[in-house]
Write a structure and sequence with these properties.
Blueprint: H1 3-22, H2 31-53, H3 58-64, H4 66-90, E1 94-95, E2 108-109, H5 113-134, H6 136-139, H7 143-168, H8 175-204, E3 208-217, E4 220-227, E5 240-245, E6 255-258, E7 269-274, E8 291-298, E9 311-316, H9 320-332, E10 339-345, H10 354-362, E11 367-372, E12 382-383, H11 388-394, H12 397-402, E13 404-409, H13 411-423, E14 431-435
Parallel strand pairs: 1-2, 9-10, 9-13, 10-11, 11-12, 13-14
Antiparallel strand pairs: 3-4, 3-8, 4-7, 5-6, 5-8
This protein binds flavin-adenine dinucleotide (FAD).
Flavin-adenine dinucleotide (FAD) is lined by residues 66, 142-144, 240, 254-258, 272-274, 276-280, 299, 318, 321, 434, 436-439.
GO molecular function: 2 iron, 2 sulfur cluster binding; flavin adenine dinucleotide binding; metal ion binding; oxidoreductase activity
GO cellular component, one term: membrane
Cofactor: FAD
Amino acid sequence: MPRRVLIVGYVVLLVAPLALAGMQGLPLRSLWDELATGAGLVALAILLVEFLLSGRFRLISRRIGMDVTMRWHRVLARVALVLALIHPFLYQGARNPPYPWDTTRQLTLNWEPEAILPGAVAWMLLPVLVGLALSRSDLGKKYQNWRLGHGLMALTIAGFAIWHALLAGRYSADPVLTGFWLASGAVAGACMLRVYLLAPLARLRRPWRVTRVGPIAERTWELVLAPDGHDGLKFQAGQFAWLQVGQGPFSVNDNPFSIASAPSEGPEIRFVIKELGDFTRSLGRIPIGAPAYLDGPFGHLTPVERDAPGMALIAGGVGIAPMLSILDELRAQGDPRPVTLIYGNRSAAQIVDSDRLAAMERRGHLRLVHVVSEPAEDWTGEVGVIDRPLLRRLFDDEARRSWLFVLCGPPGMLTSVQQDLTALGVPRPRILCESFVYD
Ligand SMILES: Cc1cc2nc3c(=O)[nH]c(=O)nc-3n(C[C@H](O)[C@H](O)[C@H](O)COP(=O)(O)OP(=O)(O)OC[C@H]3O[C@@H](n4cnc5c(N)ncnc54)[C@H](O)[C@@H]3O)c2cc1C
């Protein structure tokens, strides 16, 4: 499904409650009352559609990218919060039970406690939910526990908000809009079930075993898995999967990692992992033969099948992982297109697969440009960071116009390289980018 269709579908879902309310043909109330209701309807729609954005759907992540999806998830959460917070204050109608003669509730707002209380609970919990998400990194909570708690709290808020809309809402009392809210609430619940029940059940049927684990560069590990009784994972070079090692498939402890091996290399899957926190620092303790589970593939960093006369792969640190998969796949397919790899690191000790990359360069498969910011005295490559003068020097006008630029690395580097590339005339649709951090 094209990206544009997904975006249009998303917008349609957000405005659907407004359209369904408008189609009821009820007499209009004051502008403020209609604005108040509109704010409430859109806030609830955003809240419910947020579950789709964070529900690990391949269809969405393949077209839009998980990092972009999560960025929108956060932006829209703020919009929903503002709309929800102002919603009760915009009303100007009389706050009474409906007058018997006012059958369309044009003049009064349903102010009965059973209608208002669920809304008040949702109204008070929503800022807490957003606040906890914004301060997640300061709270020191384990990411996966926070994610489960965040999802359950969001589901609880959605439940209270739907309850409130059905009892207090003038338009939501209509059977069509009631049906829309109940169906959307069910889909939101199903998204959580998918991540925490259905995906683990699917993983249970396709277990993996650790066949190799060891250090390959400074604070960087290689982890190789082989399928245990099945034919492996079908993926495209550059994609990633959520990985669980040494625990049951129902454990909430999974982490996303790019697949560093190529699809055509066979069923074994290799990951290149940099030490960062709890899981990534425990790789040295994983025994050979340990069970592992994968949820994937996800991601849109998939340039191999795309039409472009050449490719620039730009990696920062462990952002090299998907590039290794892409390079190996291009070589396995005998792809004749010119490829330049710009690989930035702090020091030469952090370079992964340095001999293999050098061998690819010698065979003429690759133009390899190492960039190191803290070089040793004998360093012969580029010094500094991947910046505009370097990019200008490496790519002529024709390459800038027509090549595909594939970026992966720390968020700061991604932002600055994207800005440099667009300033140098690279069209935005020719830049593919995946961030390893969702914050
Ligand atoms: C699409 C994608 C691909 C990635 N590919 C690689 C790779 O090939 N090699 C590599 O070294 N790193 C990769 N990462 C980063 C890697 O996922 C984190 O470094 C790792 O999860 C840290 O886990 P931890 O338990 O060691 O640290 P923690 O301290 O638990 O986590 C540190 C941070 O990692 C992120 N993180 C942890 N768990 C998850 C999760 N389940 N979902 C999303 N984010 C999470 C959070 O931002 C968290 O704050 C990738 C990340 C993403 C999003």
